[in-house]
Automatic annotation (TrEMBL):
Biased composition (Basic residues): 1119-1135
Region named Disordered: 380-407, 1112-1135
GO biological process, any: macrolide biosynthetic process
Keyword Plastid: no
UniProt source species: Streptomyces palmae
Protein name listed in UniProt: Acyltransferase domain-containing protein
Molecular function as annotated in GO: 3-oxoacyl-[acyl-carrier-protein] synthase activity; fatty acid synthase activity; phosphopantetheine binding
Keyword Lyase: no
Gene3D superfamilies: 3.30.70.3290, 3.40.47.10, 3.40.50.11460, 6.10.140.1830, Malonyl-Coenzyme A Acyl Carrier Protein, domain 2 (3.40.366.10)
Amino acid sequence: PDHPTTTYTRHGGFLHNADTFDAPFFNISPREALAMDPQQRLLLETSWHLLENAHIDPTTLKGTPTGVYTGVSSQDYLSRLPQVPEGFEGYATTGGLSSVVSGRVAYTYGFEGPAVTLDTACSASLVAMHMAGQALRQGECTLALAGGVTVFSTPTAFVEFSRQRGLAPDGRCKPFAAAADGTSFSEGVGLVLLERLSDARRNGHQILAVIRGSAVNQDGASNGLTAPSEVAQERVIRQALAQARLAPDQVDAVEAHGTGTTLGDPIEAQALIAAYGRERPADRPLLLGSIKSNIGHTHAAAGVASVIKMVLALRHGLLPATINIDEPSPHIDWDTGGLRLLTETVDWPETGRPRRAGVSSFGISGTNAHLILEQAPVPEPQEEQAGAPGPETVRLSGRPAAQSAGAGSEAGVLPWVLSAHSPRALRGQAEALARRIAVEPGWSAAEVGWSLVATRARLDHRAVVVGGDRSELAEGLRALAAGEGHPAVVCRDATAATGGWRVFLFGGQGSQCVGMGAGLYERFPVFAAAFDEVCGLLDPHLEHPLREVVLHGRPEPGLLDHTTYTQAGLFALQVGLVRLLDACGVRPDAVIGHSVGEVAAAYTAGVFSLADACRLVAARATLLGRLPSGGAMTAIEATAEELAADLARYGGEVAVAALNTPTSTVVSGPAEPVSRIGAAWRERGRRIKELTVSHAFHSPLMEPALADFAEAIGGLAYHRPRTVLISNVTGEPAGEEIAGADYWVQHIRRPVRFHPAVAQAAPRTGVFVELGADAVLLPAVQHTLDALAGDRASEEPRRPLLVPTLSRTRPEAEELAHALARLHTVSPVDWRPWFTADPAPHTVDLPGYAFQRERYWLPDAVPDPAPEAVGGAEARFWSAVEEEDLPALAATLRIGEEDGRRPSLGALLPVLSGWYRERREQSAVDSWRYRIGWQPLAEPGGSGAGDWLLVEPAEGAGDWPAACERALSAAGGRVRRLVVAQDAERLELTAVLRASADEDAAPEGVLSLLPLDERRYAPGSAVSTGLTATLTLLQALVDAGLDAPLWCATRGAVAVGEEAAPPSSVQAQVWGLGRVAALEHPLTWGGLLDLPESPGELAPERLLAALPRLVTDAAPTSRHSHPGRRRGHRRPHRA
C-alpha cells in the first residue's frame, strides 16, 4: 500500500468478455464501438436479454414512454489514452460521457421515457431503481429498465483502495465475519424491468416480485466523507418501511451492503438492529446475508445484484448462505440484537403472509438506499394463461377452450420461428434453443412455438422449422444449427429475388377435388368462418349445400366436377385462403386470376363486396352449368399467331380460350374441329393435351348465356380496384373498365390472357403465391419467367419465389405451414394466428439472443517520451524571463549588481519576456491547427474480388461506367450494373435493390457514379441531379437493408496537391453529403472517391487500392499519380 501505483492483491471478479461486443446487431460501426466505454456495450446487450427474459419483443417498445435508469461510477476506458486517436474524433465524446450510458440505450431502442445516468458510487443501481419507481408512480414512464454496470478499464480503483487498505488480500469478501479484512472488487452488469403492478397484471406480464417501498438519503456532516453513518442508515431503513406501510417485524430478511470491512460491517449491523431487530419476536430474528461473499463488490451494480439475488430467493423460498465466514463478527450483538447471519442455506420461514426482504446499498459519497421487496402475488386464473403482452394479439379460435388444442398439447403441425441479425447468429440461435429444449422435457412443442412467435423480435435473417411433434422439430433445429439441409427446415432461397411485389394467383376450373379446404376448415376457425359465410351467400342459388359438396362429396359423387359447383367451390376456398393469409399479415400487392379465378381476385382487390361477388359467381356458375354439355378444349404447344390460320378455317367456331404460357395456347369449341386442330399439331411434332371439361369455355358456345348473365349482374355495385389487378381480358392492369357488367360479360367469352398478365407483373414481383387446391398455375408462371429470362440473356435473370398455399402431395396444414415459412423468410409473417388454442399456450423462458461478439478494445496508448528534463539553471532562466524578474535572471546569469551589463539586461528583459510568452501561446495555437491532406495508399490494397453493384445515371456518366466495370472485374469479381433515371423514386429504387440482392452472392459493395450527373435538379436550383440521386440511393439502400457499403465516385470534387480549389464545385456537394451520411449511416456508408481526369487513366489497381478499405478509410482519391486517403495533418502557423 505504501508504494505508488501498486496494489497488494492480485484477485478480483472480472468479466472476461468485457472487451467483446456485437456491434453490427446494434447498427454501430466498428470505429464507434472501439470508442465506446465497454459499460455502454454491456448495457445494450443486457437490456436486449432483459426484455426477452420478460417475454417482450424489444422492437415493440419503440416510441413508447419506457425509461432507462442506470448507475455507473467508473468511466476510465478513454482515460487510458493521452489524446483521442486519429480517426476517432467525435466518437470519443459519446463513447465516454456518463449521460450517454443511459441515453444510448434509449436511443438504440427508441424509448421516449426518461433516460438518467446517476453516480452515487456503490449505491447507484439501487438509487436508480428508487428513481425509476418514482417515475412510474408519477406516470413519467410505463416501463423502466433500472440497474447498474461496472467495468474497470484501468487498475486505478485497486491502487486507490490498496492505499486505504480496504481490499481483502486473498480477494475473498467476508461480510460480518470475525475474519473480515476488506472487500473484493468485481465487475458486473445487472438490470431489472419495472412496471406498475396494475399494468403488469393487465398486460399479462410475469411478475417476479413487488417493490413494496424504497427510500434514499445522505449521511450529511458525519464523522468523515467516506465513513458510513449508523444514524443515516437507520433513518433510510425507517423511511423505506414507512413508505411501504410495514412494521419492522413484517420483513423477514435483509440483503445487506456487507462489504466485509472491519469499519463498515459493524456500523451497518448496528443500524439494522436499531431499525429492524429490537422490535422483533425472539423466535423470528432478522436473517442477514450479502451477495458480496459470492461475487465480490460490483460497485455501481452492487445494489441490483442484491435485488436479483433476493428476487430469486423470494421465488424459490430459500435464503442462500453467506460464505467465507469463519465465525460471526464479535463486534456485533448477535445475541440480543435480533439478527442472525445466514452461514448456511435455509428455507424461507412460513409466516402466513407474503415473504418480504429488505435490500441495502450505501455509497462511498454518503448516499444511502434501502428497498423492500415482497413476494409476487398469486396470479389470477386468467393471468396464468396470459400469453404475449398487448391487446393486439390476434385470436382466431372460436371454439370453446375444451375443444381447442391445450397449452400442453402438440396441436398438429407447428412452426418454430427463429430470426437473427446474420446467418451465423441464426445458427447460434438454433444451437442455443436446441440445447435448452434438451434439458426441458416438460416444454411442449406448442409452448416453444408460441413463445418464439409471441416474445421474440423478427430480425433480418429468418428460418422456420416445421414439424408435427417435438422430436421432429428438435431434429430440424439441430440441422439448422449445423448449417445442414433438412425437410423440416425452411430458409431463405438464395436464388430467389428479394423485395418486389407479392402477387396472389387465383386458379380456375381444373384444380378442384373433394375435400379441398377440409384440413384448413378443421384447423383454422378464421378459414371456417369465411368458408361458411360464402356458402351461406351461395346456397340459396344452388340445389345442394355447397359445404357438403366441397368438403364431403355429398350428396352425389362427382357433383363437385359439375361447373356450377366447381366455380362456387373454388371461390369459397379462395376467399377462405385470402382471409386466413390476411390474418397472418400476408396481403397482396397485385392479383391475377385465371378465368373464374378472376372473380376471387377482383373481390380481393375491392372491385365488389363479398355479397355481390357471390351473386356474380352464382349467376355465372348456374347459367354456364345450364348450357348444353359438350364441346372440347385442348392445350397446344404453339402460339396464338401460329394457330391463327387453323382457327380461320373453321369460320369462328373454334377460338383461343387461354394464353397460358409463351408457347402453350388453349383452343376451345365444338369437339370435332378442336380434335382435328390438335391432331394436326401433333403430327407436326408439337405436344398437345386434351383437357377434361364439361363445356367449351371461352368459346362461341358460351354466347347463349351472356344476355341472361348481363341481366343478372347489372345491379351489382362495382368499384375501381384498390389493389393492382392485372386483367384476364387485356393482360394489363385493370382500370375503370372492370367496374361494370360489360367487362364481366366479355370475361366469359374472351380468352384468358394469363401469360401476358404474368409477364406484365414479373419485372416488379418478388413472389407469386397461388391460392387454390393445388399448384396448377405456378408451372405456367415458371415457363413464362424462363422465357422472360431468355429474352434478357445479357442480364442476370431475376427469380421470383413461386409459393403454392396448398398441394395434393401433403396435408393442407403442413403445406400451408411451409408456404408461410417460405414467405416469412422474405418478409415477416404474423404467426400468432397459427396457435388457435384459447387460452394461448404458456410462454416459456427461451434462451436469450446469441450475440456474435468480436473484440473492440482500443490499445493502451503509451505517451510520447517526455523531452529531456530542462536543467535547473535553464528552468530558472526561462521562469525569470516569463515573470520579468531581473534579480533572478541576473543571478542565473551570474551578473552582479555592479556589472556594467546589468542595465542592458534590464532593458532587454521586457522584450525577451514578451517574445517568450508569444512563442508559448503560438505553440498552443499551432497544436490546434490542422489541414486536409492526402495520405498515399499502398497498391493494390486488396483483392477486390466479390460481387459489386455499379449504379450509374441515365445521363452524364460518359464512358466511366464501362471503365469502372473493367476495373472492378480485373480481380475476378462480378459486376452488376443498375441504371437510375433522373426521376427515380425512393420506393421504386428500394424495390429494385431488394430484388437485385442475392444472399449467397451479396455484393461486397455498391459503387455509385450518380454524382457525375451535374445537371440541375430543377430550373434555378443550385442542387445537382447527382446529389439528389445520391441521397435517394442512400435512403433506398437503408430501406432495402442491403448489407453492402455505398461508395460514391466524383470527378474533380476535391482539391488535390497544389490545387487551390476543387475543379467541380457541383460535384463537391456530394462530399458534404458524405460527411453527414458517414455519421448517420456508418454501416451503409463506405466512402467517397475522386476519379482521374479521364476514364483511360483509371488503373484497376488504383481503384482496388481504395475500395477494400470499407471501414477504416473514409474518403480515398485515385486522382493524379497515386491513390490516397483524406486525412487531417497538423499545420503550424507560419509568420
